[in-house]
Specification:
Low-confidence stretches: 1-6
Order of helices and strands: HEEHEHEEHH
Number of strands: 5
Largest sheet: 5 strands, mixed
Radius of gyration: 15 Å
Number of helices: 5
């Protein structure tokens, strides 16, 4: 387990974040894949907002745990997130899908991403490691300036 932190939150906050991602799996609606995922998002005010995956018989309408947590947080007025933790029931670390990587990047490239196992072991990655050559609002601004 890693013990260094690049952002300003404390180890107790990290432990709470990891545990909340694991607990969030309990609410997963995954009757088709049986693949439960939980996410917990740390806001810049220290609150933790969690989410789970919600599947749909029309698979394209399924919502991942990471996006559930992000949409909940944004709808509550939060826009800055120093960290997100993601867990599943697998023996390996689970990483966010491409859609979720892009949505996490939308709210900041400095968000720490913790991939969590049920025993609280984790792997910490940066958004840039998960999504190299990110597409951000700066790319849109550059495109506007060229017109």
């Amino acid at each position: 387990m890693e013990t260094s932190f690049t952002n300003s939150y404390q180890e107790s906050t990290l432990t709470s974040l990891l545990k909340r991602s694991i607990k969030a799996k309990q609410h997963s609606h995954s009757p088709y894949s049986k693949f439960r995922v939980g996410a917990a998002l740390l806001t810049d005010t220290g609150e933790i907002i969690d989410g789970c995956n919600v599947e749909n018989a029309s698979y394209g309408l399924t919502i991942c745990a990471e996006r559930t947590a992000l949409v909940k947080a944004v709808s509550m007025g939060f826009k800055k997130f120093p960290a997100i933790a993601i867990s599943s029931d697998t023996e390996k670390f689970i990483a966010p899908c491409g859609d979720c990587r892009q949505v996490i990047a939308e709210f900041g490239l400095d968000c720490d991403v913790y991939l969590v196992k049920s025993d609280l072991s984790y792997k910490k990655l940066s958004v840039s490691e998960l999504l190299p050559m990110t597409f951000t609002s700066e790319d849109l601004e550059r495109a506007k300036l060229k017109k």
